[in-house]
């Protein structure tokens, strides 16, 4: 089993934690991680964009001028795409962009992302994060102590004080274990997990 150092919020090492190899030590599957990221981005699209084709724009039934003798190019309708107010060529229509992955693929993608962070030495485990009040400067100092100024911070359950304290730090995002995604893990430079978050992740994915 791989082991990692556990730090307190002051950045001091307090203990060593054994990680489950079936979650944090799997063979990294880049293809499934790519599918998971593409899927999350695609599934977040509304797919409501719509424009009218020339057959749907009102008017334009009458030929604007006769075919020959005017000096103009021949035109059949004022609703052709080259006319102002005309239809759109290959107009976008509402559609479903969602990408489906089966459960095992999603789980392996998540394990691959977690294993990749550990392999790159970008996984930081902290014993606990407890804030007395909502304070951005205090939370920023904690991340500086952990040498993770640009990171995804994962707690077992949603912690409102942590979430609100991190809101104004541009390169930081907080989430609970039940909202963890492959996209967020790969997007941020470092992954900061609380000790109980590690246990919750291993319970779900082991």
From TrEMBL:
GO BP term, pick one: translation
Family: Belongs to the universal ribosomal protein uL4 family.
Protein task: One of the primary rRNA binding proteins, this protein initially binds near the 5'-end of the 23S rRNA. It is important during the early stages of 50S assembly. It makes multiple contacts with different domains of the 23S rRNA in the assembled 50S subunit and ribosome.
Quaternary structure note: Part of the 50S ribosomal subunit.
Organism: Coprococcus hominis (ex Liu et al. 2022)
Lineage, top ranks: Bacteria, Bacillati, Bacillota, Clostridia, Lachnospirales
The keyword Cytoplasm appears for this protein: no
Biased amino acid composition, Polar residues: 43-52
Name of the featured protein: Large ribosomal subunit protein uL4
Gene that produces this protein: rplD
Record-level Gene Ontology MF annotations: rRNA binding; structural constituent of ribosome
UniProt keyword list: Ribonucleoprotein, Ribosomal protein, RNA-binding, rRNA-binding
GO cellular component: ribonucleoprotein complex; ribosome
Record-linked PANTHER family: 50S RIBOSOMAL PROTEIN L4, LARGE RIBOSOMAL SUBUNIT PROTEIN UL4M
SUPFAM superfamilies in the cross-refs: Ribosomal protein L4
Region spans: Disordered: 43-87
């Amino acid at each position: 089993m791989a082991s990692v150092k556990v730090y307190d919020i002051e950045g001091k090492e307090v203990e060593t934690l054994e990680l489950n190899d079936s979650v944090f030590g799997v063979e990294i599957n880049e293809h499934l991680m790519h599918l998971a990221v593409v899927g999350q981005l695609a599934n977040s699209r509304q797919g409501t964009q719509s424009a009218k084709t020339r057959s749907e724009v009102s008017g334009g039934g009458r030929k604007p001028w006769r075919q020959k003798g005017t000096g103009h190019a021949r035109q059949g309708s004022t609703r052709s795409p080259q006319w102002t107010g005309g239809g759109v060529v290959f107009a976008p229509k509402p559609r479903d962009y969602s990408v489906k992955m089966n459960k095992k693929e999603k789980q392996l993608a998540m394990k691959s992302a977690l294993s990749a962070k550990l392999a790159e030495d970008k996984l930081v485990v902290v014993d606990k994060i407890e804030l007395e009040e909502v304070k951005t400067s205090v939370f920023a100092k904690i991340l500086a102590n952990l040498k993770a100024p640009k990171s995804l911070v994962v707690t077992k359950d949603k912690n409102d004080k942590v979430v609100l304290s991190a809101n104004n730090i541009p390169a930081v995002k907080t989430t609970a274990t039940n909202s963890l995604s492959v996209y967020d893990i790969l997007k941020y430079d470092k992954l900061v997990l609380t000790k109980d978050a590690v246990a919750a992740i291993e319970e779900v994915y082991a």
